Structures are given as C-alpha cells and as structure tokens.
Amino acid sequence: MISKILFPLAVTLPFYLLLQIFHLVYGRLTHPLRHIAGPRNPSFILGNLKKMTDDTQLTEKWRNEFGRTFKFNGLFSISHFHTTDVKALTRILAHSSIYQRFTADGDNTRRLSGDSLIVVETGDHKRQNPAFGGAQIRLLTETFIQNAERLRDTLASQVAQEKGAAGHVMGKAGESLIVLSLILQTGKPNKLNDAFTNLLHSPNAELYAGFRIVQSLFPLLWLLPVPGTKASETARAAVFDVVNQIVSERKNIEGSELEKALSEQRDLLSVMIKANVSADRPESQRLSDAEVIAQIPGLLLAGHERPTMDELNSFPYLESVVRETLRVHAPVAFVNRMAIEDNVLPLSQPYIDTKGKSHDSLT
User: Fold this and answer.
1) Tens of pLDDT along 198-247?
2) How many CB atoms lie within 10 A of CB 361?
3) Of 350, 347, 343, whose CA–CA distance to 32 is shortest?
4) What percentage of the chain has pLDDT greater than the value 90?
5) Distance CA 132, CA 232 (A)
6) Which of 160, 176, 278, 304 is the most exposed place for a label (fewest CB within 10 A)?
7) What is the pLDDT of residue 184?
8) How far apart are CA 195 and CA 81, in angstroms?
9) Higher pLDDT, 91 or 168
10) Could you give the number of structural domains in the chain?
11) CA angle, 277 as apex, 275 and 281 as ends, to 5°?
12) Widest CA span of the chain, in angstroms?
C-alpha cells in the first residue's frame, strides 16, 4: 500500500522540481526588470536577502548608488524592484486591487493568523477596517498609557539587572508585555507568549521563517514536515484556542449586558467586538466569528496602530523625536507588493537602465 503511494510521488517530484527550476530560470531571462540596475547577486539561493537582513541600512546605501528605483534579488534569485519614488508609491497605494501583497508573504502570514486585516485584500479588507477606526482606537487611550507605564517600569528594572544590555532588554520585554496586554486582558498571556516566543524569537526562528517562505514559493512543499512546522502549528493553535474561548464567553452575554460588559473593558479585543455588534452597523458589514478571531494573531504579528492623543500633541518636542525616530527606524522597513495584471507604473524621477537608456515608467 505504501509503495503504491511512494512510487508515483518519487516519479512526479523530480519533474515538479525541474519544472519549477525551468520557470525560475526562464522567468529571470525574460523578466521585465532584467535591465534595471542593482546590486550584484551574491547567491542563487539567497539572493540579496541575507545581506539585507544583516544590514538594515543596506537599501539606503543602494539608493545612493543606483537611485530611487533599483533591482535586487530575492530567494532563488527572483527579481524584485525597490522604489522610494513618490509618484510610483502613490499609484501603488491608490490601486491596491492591482498591486497586492506578495503571494509568499500572504500565504506565510495566513497560516499563522488566518484571514485577518493584514492578509485580506480589496472588499474583505474594506469590510474589516471599520473595526479599527479612529473612534475605536481612541477608546484605547487609557490602556496605552497604563501599559506604557508598566513597560517603562519593567525596562528600568531589567536594564538595572542587565547592565549594558538596554537594546536586548527592550526587544525582549517590550513585545511580550505591552502587545499581549493591549490585545486582551484575560490573565492568560503565558500560553500565547511561550508559543510566539518559540516561533519568532527562538535560536532557529530565522531558519523556520526561511522554510515557510520556500514553502510559499513551492506549494507542494507544504506537504512535507519541514523544520518549524510544529512550532507554527503550536503557535497558531495556542492563539486560536485562547481567543476562541474569550470570544465565545463574551458572545454568551446578551443584549444590554454585553454592551455594558464591553464598555467596561479597554483591551483591543473588547473594543473590536463592541464595534462589530454596534446596532448601527449593517449585518453585511459585520465580521464573522472566524474573522474576529483571526484579527488577534494578525495583530500579534503586525503590531498596532498608535493613536495620536490630544494631550501628547501638546508636547511638540516629544512628537518631533517620535516622528523622526519612526522615519529613520521604521517599524516596517518595506512592504512587498506584486502586480497581478499588466500595468504601467509612472515615475517622478526617471531611472537609467544597464544599457544607458532613460525610463520614466515601469511596465
């Protein structure tokens, strides 16, 4: 019985791999970006990604050398172009139905978070977005301030214990403390924290992430138990188990009692549920239980929108420092997008290709 399964697989797998390699090579030779200038490709398998991971300022160095628009190589030397051209970015953001998230990134995140706000596109994204509007975020003011004070005290304590390790302490304490408290105040964060620490911050975290990306590029590999699969499944199960229980408990509270209970809570999950069950929200625009649950692991992975508080805006120097810090050291260095149909991307500043020709657009 086993031989009947393994024999066709053994025959088919080499042909599948050869076909994928052919697509990679042919795509590279005919790629529309092949004549765009860019850094040398140091590795066929890793491309420029290893250097980009090791040096977060590398893209800035490349901009100084090649201009606002240049090409770099991703996994298996797949060509990508990097641009900071304002006209191009404006078009990309204004036409999100055409320029969608890179497929591998979306598949990778979806396996951990489900169909959350950071994964879905177009109509589904528009329907989920109101649950995170300005009014809902404003309700979290008190929680943000309380958790910021807790984070300050925790960091001060750990920096005192680990002299000279302030940066390490910030990364270690910040995420586990403030993120989980902001999302859900349940008294049950340890299970979630342990699962995501193992997935995202263990010594093998980068290796696990690399395997997940390769699986997204070659979907057949999802059938294989590659390293990190168990960690991903454990993290996803832990999050969905805890959040599903919380959502179920709060759904059992009916009518005005639910409204009262949610009004007393200032964690992000309660604010989101309150927005979702609001009487003035049409049924067609409400999130399903699965979508509500999916937001939590999505937010654990992506972080949170920091609201602009009126009281904090009265401190212009603080605001300037925060804005400049976020500009120079952005939480998200870049976002991958891919055109799902033929399109012309205009540029405000032309680029010179490897043949010396000037171009004011990308096709």
Assistant:
1) 666 667 777 777 777 777 777 777 677 777 777 777 777 777 777 777 67
2) 13
3) 343
4) 1
5) 26
6) 160
7) 47
8) 35
9) 91
10) 1
11) 75
12) 73
Structure tokens at 209: 């992430």
Distance of alpha carbon 230 from alpha carbon 208, whole angstroms:
10
d(CA 117, CA 294): 8
Q: Which domain holds residue 227?
A: 122-328
321 beta partners: none
Q: Is the residue at 128 inside a domain?
A: yes
pTM over 0.90: no
Please state, as a whole number, how many other Cβ atoms lie within 10 Å of the Cβ of residue 309.
12
Token code pair at residue 69: 């628009």
Phi–psi pair at 317, nearest 5 degrees? -65, -45
- Over the stretch 125-141, which tens digit does the pLDDT of each residue have? 566 566 566 666 666 66
pLDDT band at 312 (very low <50, low <70, confident <90, very high): low
- Residue 302 neighbours by CB distance under 10 Å: 16
Query: What confidence tens digit (pLDDT) does each residue in 348-358 have?
Result: 988 888 888 88
Q: What is the 3-class SS of the chain, one letter each residue? A: CHHHHHHHHHHHHHHHHHHHHHHHHHHHHHCCCCCCCCCCCCCCCCCCHHHHHHCCCHHHHHHHHHCCEEEEECHHHCEEEEECCHHHHHHHHHCCCCEEECHHHHHHHHHHHCCCCCCCCHHHHHHHHHHHCHHHHHCCHHHHHHHHHHHHHHHHHHHHHCCCCHHHHHHHHHHHHHHHHHHCCCCCHHHHHHHHHHHHCCCCHHHHHHHHHHHHHCHHHHHCCCCCHHHHHHHHHHHHHHHHHHHHHHHCCCHHHHHHHHHHCCCHHHHHHHHHCCCCCCHHHCCCHHHHHHHHHHHHHHCCCCCCCCCHHHCHHHHHHHHHHHHHCCCCCCCCEEECCCCCEEEEEEEECCCCCEEEEEC
The pLDDT of residue 45 is above 70: yes
Whether 170 maps to a domain, the answer reads yes
Asked if the structure places residue 14 within a domain, the reply is no
Give domain status of residue 229, yes or no: yes
What residue type is assigned to position 83 of the chain? T
Percent with pLDDT over 70 in the chain: 53
